[in-house]
Write a structure and sequence with these properties.
two-stranded parallel sheet; two-stranded antiparallel ribbon; mainly alpha; 55% helix; single chain; 13 helices; Fumarase C, Chain B, domain 1
Length: 342
């Protein structure tokens, strides 16, 4: 997917999938950038102290630097930030960060030139691009996992000879959360034509014939739309927040070339992205917990409808099938839930 950078809104899908990026040749777009930059130069020429341009950063904002010293000031910005720890960002994360920073700078309120957009040197340091780029990659991977997980659940419905009644539209029309409706519809579509998943009426007919036949399935089977519905809705909210952030001007100061005013503000604060990711941690923990419960049913011969003990293929007593896999899954689920509380 190719993307032209201008003042236009960039969608979440474009943020996720754009591989080729070009700077728009539109004259009005370029004039807007030039107006902001020229106004900034005029203010500098007057000797006006402008945060981060002719002053230091943070508490050092009281220190004035002549415009001739600006190059050294910018170089020091890189130097004193050279103390990061942890793993390097991935190639994909870096691509998204650069794209997001381009998007913010292209709005024409940062005082930069078109040339800087094309070089992307100094301007990467400011704003919320890094956290937003990491968020985009995290949400993209999580969404891909959710799609795969729903396919697993559809298979589980068949393996467990589950009742398809909890997926019927009326159940979710009377509790009309979009994510819940979506999950039920997706699972129902995956199970369309199944000769194993049955309707509740069949259980009514067979209820008195089978002593161990429960009139309804376990919570972790029949409540899947309700549990994953919340997850999907939270993911959509998070995507909208991050998309808005990626299209926002989050510099400080904000340079309004048309209104001839400089605004010192706090749009660099990434609270929406942070809260979106905190919400997503809770959603991921809920999904992991559901998967753990579903898999424990699958390997338990008391509940797996005759599939056998621990899914083992051998009838030898010293074989334990998938038991260790289930223990590992429980450990990983617990790990996800611990991360939720951090």
């Amino acid at each position: 997917m190719s993307l032209s950078i201008s003042t236009e809104h960039i969608s979440y899908d474009e943020l996720c999938h754009s591989e080729k990026v070009v700077i728009s040749d539109d004259s009005l777009f370029r004039q807007r950038l030039d107006n902001s930059h020229q106004f900034l130069l005029e203010e500098i020429a007057k000797g006006k102290p402008i945060y981060g341009v002719t002053t230091g950063y943070g508490e050092s904002g009281k220190n004035y630097s002549a415009f001739e010293e600006a190059k050294e000031l910018q170089k020091n910005l890189f130097r004193f930030h050279g103390c990061g720890v942890g793993d390097f960002l991935s190639h994909e994360e870096c691509k998204r960060i650069l794209l997001i920073r381009l998007s913010s700078l292209s709005k024409g309120f940062s005082g930069i030139t078109v040339g800087l957009l094309e070089r992307m040197a100094l301007a990467i340091m400011n704003g919320t691009a890094a956290m937003s780029g990491i968020a985009i990659e995290a949400m993209s991977r999580f969404e891909n996992w959710l799609h795969a997980y729903e396919s697993f659940i559809a298979g589980l419905f068949e393996m467990m000879h589950a009742d398809g009644t909890p997926l019927q539209p009326l159940v979710h029309e009377v509790k009309p959360f979009k994510g819940q409706i979506r999950t039920a519809a997706q699972l129902a579509e995956k199970l369309l034509g199944s000769e194993i998943v049955h309707a509740q009426d069949e259980r009514y007919d067979k209820f008195f014939e089978h002593e161990e036949l429960c009139i309804q399935d376990k919570y972790s089977i029949r409540c899947t739309p309700q549990v994953l519905g919340v997850v999907w809705d939270n993911l959509e909210i998070s995507k909208k927040w991050v998309e808005t952030e990626c299209n926002a001007v989050n510099d400080n100061p904000i340079i309004d070339g048309e209104g001839k005013k400089i605004y010192t503000s706090g749009n660099f604060y990434g609270g929406y992205v942070a809260h979106a990711m905190d919400t997503l941690k809770i959603a991921a923990a809920n999904a992991a917990d559901l998967l753990d419960k579903q898999f424990s049913l699958l390997v338990d011969h008391k509940f797996n409808r005759g599939i056998g003990e621990n899914l083992k293929l051998s009838d030898k007593a010293h074989h334990h099938g998938f038991k260790a896999m289930q223990i590992t899954l429980s450990s990983l689920s617990a790990d996800v839930m611990i991360c939720r509380s951090l």
